[in-house]
Amino acid sequence: MNQDLSILTLVLHASAVVQLVMLMLVVVSVASWSAIFRKVFALRRMKGLNERFEREFWSGTSLNDLYAAAAGNARNCGAMERIFASGMREYQKLRERRIADAATLMDGARRAMRASSQREMDEIESNLSFLASVGSVSPYLGLFGTVWGIMHAFTGLANMQQVTLATVAPGIAEALVATAIGLFAAIPAVVAFNRFARDIDRIAIRLETFIEEFSNILQRSAGAQSASGR
Questions:
Q1: Is the pLDDT of residue 8 over 70?
Q2: Please, are residues 139 and 187 in contact by the beta-carbon 8 Å criterion?
Q3: Would you list the domain boundaries of the chain?
Q4: Angle between the 79-96 and 16-57 helix axes, to the nearest 10 degrees?
Q5: Closest Cα partner for 112 from 134, 135, 91?
Q6: How many CB atoms lie under 10 A from the CB of residue 214?
């Protein structure tokens, strides 16, 4: 007599604990894929906005025009543009207070950009810890379901006088499904986490480079204004 060992049948005939573990893993997997797709679109949008602003920044447009555009269209600004706006805002505030010392101007602008950059990085790195947790915990959760299922299968076989492979196989197969689902949840999460971490590191380096380049521009501007005011 052939036994139906399809995945659906194995899940339906698994013990309650194993079914609960499988359900948890499926929910975690769905949440993980949702986080992955959101992060993919968010990073792609951020890269596009940063590249667009960087082209405008180096095209020769005046800093005041760029700042006015950033202030008037804050919702569609990228991370680099918001960092630029925070630096310009602090720089102009200090100039309005008639502070002419170039070092003071640069210190304030740079601190404002650093704080803005940290906020941007916190936003970019959201959900990464969740993916890391899914990647590390899901295999163990699946393994727990497998161990419990095998214990349950062998407990049921204790009262049988004759045990064959046909009687053992279904119970073990049911238990192993939990490990398979755990790996199905963990592998994409680990791959996505590593990919996102690499992409975020590149964005962080690019933002850091922009802060230094923009700081040099502001420093030259502050030095020129200080010299003209003497």
A1: no
A2: no
A3: 7-228
A4: 50
A5: 91
A6: 21
